[in-house]
Amino acid sequence: MPRSKRNTTIALTQTNKKDKAHKGQLIQTIRDCCEGFQYVWVFDVEHMRNNLLQEVRVAWKGSRIFLGRNAVMRKALGATPEDECRLGVSKVANLLEGSRGLLFTNEPADVVEEWFESFKKQDFARSGNVVQEGFTLPAGPLKIDDQPLAHSLEPQLRKLGLSTTLNRGVPTLANEHVVCKKGDALNSNQVNLLKLFGRYLATFQIVPRLGVNIHDGSVVGSKAAE
């Protein structure tokens, strides 16, 4: 009788070998980029969205973007002047933490900073996001784009914490309802209400933090003067 694939045991040493090989490949790829590009940047990603990151990759197809596995990327670059694979790249390596990544490019600093400053995409905030503005629903009939909400939404609104009643078939608030305030870390009810009323309170953006000229180790861009 054929052995079920569900019962297949994968040795831990096998997965460890694959992981080690992948790390080694990433390290070599990053070091190759240090040889093939003039600049390396460390950047922050705010409100990560995979589809929008893909748009950035397409727009910068002549460059290379790496995101994730910060410890491996630090090792590839070298975190000290003694260990760095090229002059000055340890300055970038030591900033790799959290949701940060690397951009290798031949584009000058002003082009990099201006392009990423212009590429901002609004989206719905997610649970846990800290919002930079508030949103309040006024008392009275609830509307979206000046159109009254359907009566069928009233049970959903109540589940999301709104004290609504039906008035002539329209969900209605007797008093205003504060959905969120500036500085709130959103919960699921707040997220769903913001989506329902079409409020975009998150902005996807990649923010270049520090660039290094790999040829001479100098810092480039607006941070160079700091």
Automatic annotation (TrEMBL):
Q: Which terms in the GO cellular component ontology are assigned?
A: cytoplasm; nucleolus; preribosome, large subunit precursor
The record's keywords, sorted A to Z, are: Cytoplasm, Nucleus, Ribosome biogenesis
Q: Where are the transmembrane segments?
A: none
Q: Name one GO biological process term.
A: ribosomal large subunit assembly
Q: What is the top-level taxon of the source organism?
A: Eukaryota
Q: What Gene Ontology terms describe what this protein does at the molecular function level?
A: RNA binding
InterPro entries listed in its UniProt record: Mrt4, Ribosomal_uL10, Ribosomal_uL10-like_insert, Ribosomal_uL10-like_insert_sf, Ribosomal_uL10-like_sf, Ribosome_Assembly_uL10
Where does the protein end up? Cytoplasm; Nucleus, Nucleolus
- Major location category of this protein: cytoplasm
Family matches, as Gene3D superfamilies: 3.30.70.1730, 3.90.105.20
Residue limits of the Large ribosomal subunit protein uL10-like insertion domain? Answer: 125-198
Provide the leader sequence positions: none
Q: What does this protein do?
A: Component of the ribosome assembly machinery. Nuclear paralog of the ribosomal protein P0, it binds pre-60S subunits at an early stage of assembly in the nucleolus, and is replaced by P0 in cytoplasmic pre-60S subunits and mature 80S ribosomes.
Quaternary structure (record) = Associates with the pre-60S ribosomal particle.
Its family remark reads: Belongs to the universal ribosomal protein uL10 family.
Q: What is this protein called?
A: Ribosome assembly factor mrt4
Q: Which organism is it from?
A: Microbotryum intermedium
